[in-house]
Amino acid sequence: xxxxxxxxxFVYATYPAFPEHKVALKFLRACRKSHSQYAMSWSVxxxxxxxxxxxxxxxxxxxLFEHARENVAKFMEAPNVMxxxxxxxxxxxxxxxxxxxGKSRGNILHDAHHVALMTEHGIxxxxxADTDFRLFANITLINPLEA
Length: 147
Hints:
CATH architecture: 3-Layer(aba) Sandwich
Strand content: 5-15%
CATH topology: Rossmann fold
Number of strands: 5
CATH class: Alpha Beta
Helix content: 40-55%
Strand order of the largest sheet: 3-2-1-4-5
Number of domains: 1
């Protein structure tokens, strides 16, 4: 398994106005063509859909749901991309992850959910621009947007 792809990479790949756009798009295209396995979760899908269709965040360029859905579906249909889901003891795994990182409030819990999923599926690498993932033990953060 190569790694888990976080929402922000998809968001950057969607909007040409972002300086990171071309690099993010190139990375996602390379992932789809790779022989390595990549993972994402339904929470990544929903977060992506929520963010890119939000006119408050992108007043001049929020995209329609249909377009956003097409973007993510195209990536998900690659044979080397899998959706990871919570296993039966997920809440216990999440509790352990939150306890280890020492933060148990607010936005970090969303990141902890990703880490719990990764842990349950034996994934130790996350592709993201979000440096908060450095708070989690045994997770390697790779920012594919950095040259």
